[in-house]
Specification:
By secondary structure, the chain is α/β, with parallel strands linked by helices. The protein has seven helices and eleven strands.
Length: 268
């Protein structure tokens, strides 16, 4: 099995080495990752400039750094390597739960794989302030998750979140609480206004969701899909007796003589 590994924390992140070590038990590994951090880049692709693909050595793994986004890395990695069986992304330094999936660069690498017809799995974990995660106990759970998912042939895109001290694995759905972004105004040293885009705490820990599982120290495994169609809304729309006809013609506006005079002269 050929396994391509990427991330959004950058090619020198310790999380990517931890993931590569586990993946090497399942097949041949190649790392292709951004040369600098690309967190919260979502599924951006680089179309306005050329990008570079340079060989580096990462802990004895064959690796390449790319001056682009996580999606760029997967596109380039599969292009250069040829047939790829599986794309793994992570292990990200910080969880990607709920609506963070919309802007996660980690998940975008796995999504790019799914768009190319390749299975993609994203891994993320908690990070305590001031210290790096201890990947040693997490690697056993990464291996268990891969054992579980490789048997599920129909799952093309999966988001996995690992708490610091897991007590087991749970299948979950995505939490859909309010988006956790907020704008924090500030000033630069010259007194000019600047703004930080950051996160705010969420409390939508509904049982069965990825956020609930993660909070309760379960490894959250969430199958996702590329089709964003709101099926219930579409079904309801298709069941309407009549679909309103759309016209490009504008109805003529009729005004009385008095109203035209008021428009010219202004209000009394």
């Amino acid at each position: 099995m050929r396994i391509l590994i990427s991330n959004d924390d950058g090619i020198y992140s310790p999380g990517i080495v931890a993931l590569a070590k586990v993946a090497s038990r399942f097949g041949q590994v190649r790392i292709v990752a951004p040369d600098v951090e690309q967190s919260s880049m979502s599924h951006a692709i680089t179309s306005s400039r050329p990008i570079r693909y340079k060989r580096v050595t990462i802990d004895n793994f064959e690796a390449y750094r790319v001056n682009g986004t996580p999606a760029d890395c997967v596109a380039l990695g599969t292009h250069h390597w040829g047939h790829v069986d599986l794309v793994l992304s992570g292990i990200n330094l910080g969880p990607n739960l709920g609506n963070a999936c919309w802007h996660s660069g980690t998940l975008a690498a796995a999504k790019q794989a799914a768009l190319l017809g390749i299975r993609g799995i994203a891994f993320s974990t908690a990070v305590s302030e001031g210290k790096e995660p201890d990947f040693a106990p997490l690697q056993a759970y990464v291996a268990k998750v891969l054992d579980l998912l490789l048997e599920q042939k129909t799952m093309c895109l999966v988001n996995v979140n690992l708490p610091e001290k897991p007590k087991g694995i749970r299948w979950t759905r995505q939490a859909v609480g309010q988006y956790d972004g907020k704008v924090v105004p500030s000033k630069d040293p010259m007194g000019r206004p600047i703004f930080w885009f950051t996160v705010k705490p969420l409390d939508d820990e509904v049982e069965g969701t990825d956020r609930w599982a993660f909070t309760n120290n379960w490894v959250s495994v969430t199958p996702l899909r590329l089709d964003l169609t709101a099926e219930k809304d579409l079904t309801r729309a298709l069941s309407l007796r009549h679909t309103p006809a759309l016209s490009t013609k504008r109805e003529p506006i009729r005004r009385t003589r008095k109203k035209r005079q008021q428009r010219r002269l202004g209000p009394e």
